[in-house]
Design goal:
Number of domains: 1
CATH topology: phage-related protein like fold
Helix content: 25-40%
Strand content: 25-35%
Shape: flat
Distance between the termini: 50 Å
Order of helices and strands: EHHHEEHEEHHEHEHHHEEEEEEEE
Number of strands: 15
Radius of gyration: 24 Å
Length: about 325
């Protein structure tokens, strides 16, 4: 049966309120996509925007003026780029009979909403992880020694600093972020070079790995942000037993310059374009409609987004991170 148009579906703020803590839960689970690629609200579902190339911004000009002469002048050219938001969504039917049968055990509508929300946001996270740790189109450097190597020869601080310099030499931007998986974060807390830097810099007490915080690591790496991707996906095919796997691959880390504001002119690795004109919400719009053919209330979660890499030179992927 065809699904009704958005105009026939009922917005369900009551169910959104029930999931008000979802952003906190997502953060606890390590959903970092909208932090690595901050959200930029757009007025149209698709469009074109201008980009001023690096060489046009960092031009060399003679500024000395002699009396009676004019000032030096220059013009600049720009290129264009585009965005195109796509709708992503998922539906969960709540059968009348099942809702009545199991009402003493759980709220079927709430469970359906959680499942639909999870389907949308896990895929949102996976798309960015795949773009940066999978089909990355920028430069990649394989580190010499894995950061969790048993003999303690891994030097993540050295590797990250080299990547920061590589980014600066490529585009004149200083990286401000490191993106790693939850496992790599835990390995960093056990790394000899990291623990030594914490102790020598006075950033904290590295006696126990669990006492080493993200803020301590920010100080060690001299970065504003460390994003730890701890989200989980099911790597098994539909119908098979669940096979939990990390969304962010343990073999990679990304050193990059992320946006710090809502100005589209700010140079950065990438953005999440979001189009809200059709009722979309970044974290998923929750709505419902009635499907009498199956005697069910159908819960739908949807959003219109595009995660787009804008400047590959603002990112340096590191590989061979884990043994």
């Amino acid at each position: 049966m065809p699904s009704p148009s958005t105009s026939l579906a009922t917005h369900r703020p009551d169910l959104e309120a029930s999931l008000e803590a979802f952003d906190l839960q997502a953060n606890m689970n390590g959903f970092i996509a909208n932090q690595v690629f901050p959200v930029l609200e757009v007025q149209n579902k698709a469009g074109i925007f201008g980009k001023i190339p690096l060489e046009q911004l960092l031009m060399n000009s003679e500024t000395l003026r002699a009396p009676g002469s004019g000032y030096s002048r220059s013009n600049f050219t720009f290129t264009t780029d585009s965005f195109s938001c796509e709708e992503h969504g998922h539906e969960e039917p709540v059968d009348d009979a099942e809702a009545a049968m199991y009402r003493d055990f759980f709220d079927a509508e709430l469970i359906a909403t959680q499942r639909a929300m999870s389907a949308v946001m896990v895929n949102h996270e996976k798309r960015l992880a795949d773009a940066l740790f999978g089909s990355w189109g920028g430069t990649n450097t394989a580190v010499t020694n894995e950061w969790n190597k048993a003999d303690g020869t891994g030097v993540p601080v050295t590797d990250v600093n080299a990547a920061v310099n590589t980014i600066y030499n490529a585009c004149g931007l200083w990286a401000n972020a490191l993106v790693v998986s939850k496992k790599v974060f835990r390995d960093l807390r056990d790394n000899a070079q990291v623990r030594d830097r914490i102790a020598s810099s006075g950033a904290g007490d590295p006696t126990k790995a669990q006492d080493i915080t993200i803020n301590m690591l920010k100080a060690v790496f001299d970065l504003d942000y460390i994003f730890v991707g701890g989200g989980t996906k099911n790597s098994a095919n539909e119908g098979q037993s669940a096979s939990p796997a990390a969304i962010w691959d343990d073999e990679y880390a990304m050193v990059c310059k992320v946006a710090t504001g809502n100005d589209v002119k700010e140079p950065c690795l990438g953005r999440t374009f979001h189009w809200a004109e059709d009722g979309s919400a970044v974290g998923g719009m929750v709505e419902s409609y009635r499907d009498e053919a199956i005697r069910s209330d159908v819960i739908r979660v949807r959003h219109d987004v595009q995660q787009k890499v804008l400047l590959t030179a603002a990112g340096q992927r590191l590989s061979n991170i884990s043994t």
